[in-house]
Amino acid sequence: MLKFETPISHRRYVESSGKRSCIMGYLGKGLEVWSYPVKILRNLKTNVFIRKTSERFELTEIVKNIIIKPEFVEIIYVHPLLTIEEILFSPLDFPGTFVIYQIDSFTDFEMIFSFFPELNLMWPGAIGGQYSYWSNELSGFIISEPTENFSAVIRVKEGHKNSYEGDHSFSDVPYSIHVNISKGKSEKIFSVVGGIFDRKSCENLLKLEENIETEIKKAEKHYKNFLSKTLSVETPDKELNEFFNWGKVSILKGMVINPVLGEGLTAGIGVSGRSTRPGFNWFFAGDFGINTLGILGYGDYEIIKKNLEFYIKYQRDDGRIPHEISQSAGLIDWFDKYGNFAYLHADTTAWYLLAFAMYVIESGDFEFAEKMKEKIIKAYRFYDGFFDESGMILNQKAGLGALEVGEFKRPKYDIYTNGIYLAALKKLIPVMAELKEEKLAEEMQKKVEKISQKIEDLWINDKNYYSLSVSSEGKLLDLLTPWPAFPISLGLLNRKRAKIHIKKLKSSSIFTPWGVRSVEKGKNYDPLNYNFGSVWYFINGFVSLAAYNLEDSIFGWQLIKAAIRAFFEEGSTHLQEVYSGDRFVPLNTAVAHQLFAIGPVLMAILRGTFGIEKDCITSTLTFRPQIPAHWNYFKLKNIEFNDTKINIEFERKGNISTMKFTNLKKVPIKIVLSLKKPLSGEINLSYSEGSAFVKDEKDEIKICFELKDEKILQYSEIGFKFSVEYENLKYGFSNDNPVLYHLKDESELHVLGNNNAIVYLWSNLDFQPKPEELIADNLEKKLYRFSISSGRELQVSFFKNKEG
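Structure (tokenized):
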């Protein structure tokens, strides 16, 4: 089972979340508790008073270790006289949270729990008239309001009131509960239950205290089953393996059951402090769509189907899918009074259409597609009123696209919104054809052709990159940004131009060792600006996939590895929303657990590094791996596809590679294996069983075969491969000249920059680099590692042996 031990840090984010509740906060700054959609308390802290030594301190002052598991967070505190294990636990499906203390003490002492009660709805809802009183029977505070529709209980068994509480309003002084702890071993539970309940119902909820161990085991089993049934990855890169598993769990923990609205995927979880906006812990259809490509990749079809059903419930009469839905939406006039929030973005409906089409193509669930058909067509028709004569979506009419802030947020149209819409149309065409909507599919095809031609007008000839947007005056925004990577990653733009644009993103003005900035350095750049300077792993995931699709696997891998290192540096088992463009540090305003920071990186790993593409319409699984050159093995298990599951194993010994495909349920499928040829080299294929069609192309060979049970392919490679990895990213100093690379000709590799890096190069031929330029460590017979020191321009020349 997963377990993550994280170092102590004053900025360490901790969180235990279930589908109905959450406890979270930064170490030493107090925790807050939510029972959706109600915030129950904030600034929860635990203090200790030891009479023997007259010491009084907050527990976080003696923290020794933090252990994170999918089911709970364990924090260990050690003092010369006592040890306390604190477990933060929000059950899977329960409106409340428990903080469990396992205590071992040499002396009697006291624990004091302090907090501020809130009992308020998530933004922008509100509750008035809150009051509280102490219950000796419950050993805790009861908080409620006059209608008793909202209530909560905060208690510790055998606890005593240790503060003054307001009668008809909450006190500005923290409430506190005092508990005497006897010498020896003992257990205490701090319970917070309630939400949309009356007081009596809250008291009944406390009965779960007696079955906490059962609930923990239930949660452990839930996550264990989830990890075992979804796709798993095993590679020589241990960080990647761990990141992949935790990434899946991080997204799963975004699923919330709201008692009024239903179950759906939120955008993220983060502290609200004195406000009632917990990060982005409400429902965003666009964020769901963004994460779909990653989630489908590892085979969690159930979560995609649930969210397609969830968001379509709130489709507007004109077909539009809501951009965001507060968890208070079921209790306030959200879709009318707050409609500007609900329907803010133009790209949301396109993301939803793309998510639907991708789900149907990759799951083969045409029964669901037929059921959803009329609503999907309605969503497709929504855009009919927002085109101009070019066929492009007008952001000025339809809503926001890539940018949410700044002077460029309302362009005539942008490449991002139209790119997502174009991708949705291309994926919908085969789906509509399967649903016998041939005329509609033909109509979509005509739109695809029209938009595909017009979108190329965003190319700036004299700058050699794609513009993000066009102003109302028809002027192209003359700034280099990564936003065109979205349509590039989906294979929509001119391939030659796309390669040039992606190469531009490797320039020092926009590329840092921890990722690509949201805009190049210049007068519009601000490293703290959400849209104009910061680094988003959401964007970087799509840039990575775009690079892989254009055969730039080194750049694609660098961006994935940068996100993985940010994950381990952060140490919370989640990824922060946004990082500074100048330093490898998350912004203070960043949401600590942001789903779309994780989802696109998982997408890039699965669809880029491993090149997995599923098509249930043709029953074809395409596999186009572009793994780092120094990997000598990998294992992919539980690739769910077309009523079966596939395992793929790769092993390389010397220049001989073996690829094994196993069909676990023996439902016949087609496999297309695409192998990229080494630089200045060839692939020689040999196989002994069955027949396969082999197509030899300039840069790769394609092997097509039917997989019924098992297939083993062997091949040898003649030529050389290389890959780049960064090191010393920990402190994230600003880097104006990051590592760049290109092949000058077939025998030379140039590496430029002042950033420490490592280059791995594997060759089937013997070679010798010039010793005066750098030193190569021979890791294996054919594998070398070069250490690139800072401030130098390096050139590696390869000399073939006589036999070569």
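Confidence is low (pLDDT under 50) at residues 728-747, 770-774, 798-804. The longest strand covers residues 710-726.
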